[in-house]
Write a structure and sequence with these properties.
Blueprint: H1 2-5, E1 22-24, E2 35-40, H2 44-57, E3 62-67, H3 70-82, E4 90-93, H4 96-104, E5 108-109, E6 124-125, E7 129-131, E8 135-142, H5 155-165, E9 173-176, H6 182-194, H7 198-207, E10 211-213, H8 216-224, E11 230-235, H9 236-245, E12 249-252, E13 258-261, E14 264-268, H10 274-285, H11 287-295, H12 312-319, E15 323-325, H13 338-353
Parallel strand pairs: 2-3, 2-4, 9-10, 9-11, 13-15
Antiparallel strand pairs: 1-3, 4-14, 5-14, 6-7, 7-14, 8-11, 8-12, 8-13
Helix pairs in contact: 2-11, 5-7, 7-13, 8-9
């Protein structure tokens, strides 16, 4: 689990509050240097090592960094483009569906870069939208509650455990509320595609009095102090951070399959300085940039050129076909259709009520 424990400190974009833009002057000292504008859902303090690395390689460029919610990134780019205005030069967001929609609807431009041909096929949509991180969904558990048995390692084992324990674990299971958590909805939609018996899992969690939350922290707090025994489909980076600081928190990457989500980077069609946006994207995809991502931002790197802890290469060596990355493709937009989204949520609620 060493690679997973090193994932910590990822900030889930849906919980990030809007902040004032941060300006990084060019290292050359040129007050008239060109300015790269970035819209990102990653907290500025976490993004700083990547910005520092980029500016060391590009001392003639200043950076204007705007930290905002994923929906705000999408809305700003669409609104500014439709108004005939200039927008960000680079957009980086964990809302995979919204980033792909920008690309699909003509709000992003093609970026043919040195790594484009070597980037994993699932992580590259027409050289326009690129997955730049590799982040698994995991089971979390309260270690003292499993002194005498192994924690569930598959969804079938998860169901069996809840049925066997009955009242002893009632109300002590947590997962995301898919109506309020974007990442929770993404994981649930992938579960429906990957696992034919997923509704048995949801119904069993409902019977076990599952508690729903919009943030990882609320679930992990309760796992760490023993109020909860299990958490389902929790973002691995948050779980790893908690496990590194709370010895009673354990992590399992489900052996039947492990969904992997990614943050997506793109250059908007109406970028004020698209060449700077592509230069930043190229740095993000470079061996140096992806190494900074894995070691300093503590977010798993997707590049096939980067090995070692906290990388897709290492995870694949350990887990192989167990990993199921979410492809960067128009398929992500299926549940932006409000009717389909409502149907999935309605069935989810129906299954949870069958207690």
């Amino acid at each position: 689990m060493r690679f997973l424990i090193s994932l910590g400190f990822l900030i889930l974009s849906a919980a990030v509050a809007e902040a004032a833009p941060t300006f990084f002057p060019a290292l050359s000292g040129d007050g008239a240097a060109p300015v790269l504008t970035v819209y990102s859902s990653l907290d500025e303090p976490l993004a700083r090592p990547m910005i520092d690395g980029f500016q060391k390689a590009n001392p003639d460029v200043a950076v204007r960094y705007e930290d905002m919610l994923t929906g705000e990134i999408y809305d700003r780019i669409v609104k500014e483009t439709d108004a005939g205005e200039k927008t960000a030069d680079f957009a980086f967001s964990s809302a995979m569906d919204l980033q792909v929609k920008l690309s699909n609807d003509g709000y992003a431009q093609r970026s043919d870069l040195p790594m484009s041909g070597r980037w994993p096929a699932w992580a590259n949509w027409r050289n326009t939208a690129y997955a730049l991180t590799f982040e698994p969904a995991v089971f979390v558990y309260h270690k003292p509650s499993f002194r005498n048995e192994q924690p569930p390692a598959t969804r079938a084992e998860f169901v069996d455990y809840l049925k066997r324990k009955g009242n002893a674990v009632f109300g002590r299971i947590g997962t995301y509320d898919i109506e309020r958590s974007g990442v929770g909805f993404l994981f649930m939609s992938r579960d429906q595609e990957q696992f034919g018996d997923i509704w048995t899992v949801i119904r069993t969690m409902g019977s076990a009095g599952v508690k729903l939350y919009s943030t990882s922290q609320a679930i992990l707090e309760r796992i760490s102090d023993g109020r909860f025994v299990l958490g389902y489909n929790i973002l691995g980076s948050y779980a790893a951070d908690w496990a590194s600081r709370h010895p009673d928190v354990g992590i399992v990457l489900p052996k039947d399959y492990t969904v992997v989500m990614s943050r997506i980077g793109l250059v908007p069609q109406a970028a004020a300085a698209p060449e700077l946006g592509r230069r930043y994207l190229e740095f993000f995809m470079s061996k140096e940039g992806q190494t900074i991502m894995a070691r300093e931002l503590q977010i798993p790197a997707v590049s096939p050129e980067v090995a070692g802890e906290n990388t897709a290469n290492t995870m694949r060596e350990m887990l192989g076909g167990q990993l199921k990355p979410v492809p960067v493709s128009p398929g992500l937009m299926v549940y932006l259709d409000q009717v389909k989204r409502a149907r999935l949520i309605a069935r989810w609620n129906e299954m949870l009520r069958l207690q």
